[in-house]
Fold these 2 entries.
Entry 1:
Amino acid sequence: DWQMGGYIDEAVAKIREQVGDEEVILGLSGGVDSSVAAALIHRAIGDQLTCVFVDHGLLRLNEGDAVMEMFAGKLHARVIRVDASELFLGELAGVTDPEQKRKIIGRLFVDVFKAEAAKLKAGTEGHKGENGSRAVKGATFLAQGTIYPDVVESGGTKTKKATTIKSHHNVGGLPEQLGLKLLEPLRELFKDEVRALGVALGLPHDMVYRHPFPGPGLGVRILGEVKKEYADLLRRADAIFIEELRNTIDPATGKSWYELTSQAFTVFLPVKSVGVMGDGRTYDYVVALRAVQTSDFMTADWAELPYAMLKRTSGRIINEVRGINRVTYDVSSKPPATIEWE
Ligand code: XMP
């Protein structure tokens, strides 16, 4: 809209002034904040921006390709995709404790990003990105999609939970460690403003209005040890659940059940149960569907999804994903249950 257009012009001018003819690196995760920051900075300085997208192999179905298609394909931004899935899966082998898994994923993520950023800082000649190679004279800025609530939280203005139940990884201190200056063009915006900005910059509505997805990704949605086999089954089951949520419209509100829920996903349970298919007996894995409604993610109610939708989803998962023969629905609210299962 008109107002947003004015805002974009101003923000673009500010970024150009701050950056001058220097180079900027940004860690792209596919999440809303880093995506909008990337689109805005790219609008301002084009090829002076290089995005680094670390793929830990724990993303959802086709998610990595979708990020590349959007940023490298449609926006023509310079994006380096680092496929680190083997590294992550290797380090996670045999690890079952949820906090341990979070720590490993967080540490590797920082390591991989830092290594890539160091190359860009050094101005590696002809660094090979998905978008072709080019001599980069050496980056001096690190851009982050920090938004206003993040600023307030780290400033201590907002009271933090007395006890941290789950460790979260926001990559603090990276610019200092890398010796880069910080560029944070979304610092003054609230989440709904970031979303509106994303749409105005041409990002697809579905990308900008997505449910939150945890940094450790499917790593905390596969209970216990993370294996590629489990991640592959989970990705396919989850894609079916999300598709059904998007396609099922609530007649009372005219909204999809994806919009009517705050977060919805599938959890992989590494247990097998007996089933029957045709003339045979099956002995396969179980998944749980989780869907909640919440305004602050501190407390949450399980969503009263229509039975017909649950039935369709379960039927499709069991029919289409060989290896899963049972689907359950999680009817626990937070507290005492948390939203994620780990
Ligand atoms: P819980 O499971 O604690 O989750 O009720 C509350 C919200 O936080 C998200 N979450 C995470 N986000 N890294 C993240 O970036 C994490 O390790 C993590 N653990 C939970 C969760 O998806 C929900 O939105």
Entry 2:
Amino acid sequence: MNTQTVNSLMAAISDVGRDQTRGGYSRPVYSGAETTLREWFSAEATARGLDVSTDANGIIWAWWDLPGATDTALSRRGALVTGSHLDSVPGGGAFDGPLGVASALAAHDVLAAREASGALLRNRAMAISVFPEEEGSRFGVACLGSRLLTGAINPVRALNLRDANGNTFADVAAANGMDPAGFGRDEAALTLIGDFIELHVEQGKGLNSEAHTDHAGRGPALAIGDTILGHGRWKLSFTGQGNHAGTTLMADRADPMLAAAQMIVAVRATASAQDNARATVGRLEPVPGGTNVIASRVDLWLDVRHPEDAVTAMLVQKIHGQAQRIAAMEGCAVFLTEESLSGTVHFDPVLANALAASVRRTVPGAPLLPTGAGHDAGVLAAEVPTGMLYVRNPSGISHSPEEHVENDDAHAGVQALADVLEDLL
Ligand code: GLV
Ligand code: MN
Ligand code: MN
Ligand code: MN
């Protein structure tokens, strides 16, 4: 039997996709690094006797079938599924995604040992799943795999998404052995998922907040997911007059960089004036992007999040209005495009309470916590009961090389995940 700790599994992939320029990891979907990780996962799952396949939407499934199941297709219906993703943001941390995948493998090992000793009797099959393009770092739409699976994104739109080099998702998918005609809502795959559980590094300071820390300032190792903040992405394209940096008088310019600069400041002011709102400009692309060139266009990507979907919509409307005024002041124009939008998710309360009861056997103070980060579990929540476990991240920093999980907490995560899965199997 293959038995590995989560820490040894994480150590085995610690060199894959390191970003020498940004620090941390850059593992864009269907790139060399992410492909290496997908192959690593498939090999690890196969070594455990799991039945590995990739579905029409690029999601990997590793099946731990019921012992003695004769009709596997039938016995997989309503299975317990756990997993996460292996792609990363540019210059991301080691844990966002891979921790959930490695923990699922390690939890499987714990459960397989319990089954072998006769201590675990299962009522249903289990699968570990790996979702592609959770971060949307390459094609712009986060949770692309789960959105395709559930039909939350139109496959025609998905196929036409482009990466920074102009490659369409259709071409990249085809180059990776997938049939672009096969993308879209997959009823058969959805009937296989009875419940979905995702373990993830915590991406904020919830566990280390005053409400949960002990006298030494240390929070519990784990939390249970409660809600996911509604969030979306928009692109604001400011267009002006491309021109020569040396010959164009300051008064004669229509410089979209100036509009973008004012926009970034306005975004902060607008979000800061609204309780619980978060708005970010983390990506800016001047075209053509030359030091001695006044840009002809600047694309600015906006990420807005708020617990109330109507407030998110109001904030974006407000920001769009500001963009139009700023553009006009600079002699420029602006176009707004919505790239994705996800409403606030309330995880299934019955499942969340069951998870809490299981987790608290080993981590007594584990709280239910909201998160501002998006996840495939949030997309799947529209279809099946889903739940999440968060592993303590001492600084709360994420989407950064400094993202961190302590070995003991990762281990506690696996023990708790194994207990959660056992109770649901
Ligand atoms: C993904 O991690 C997101 O929340 O943007
Ligand atoms: Mn993630
Ligand atoms: Mn992430
Ligand atoms: Mn995420």
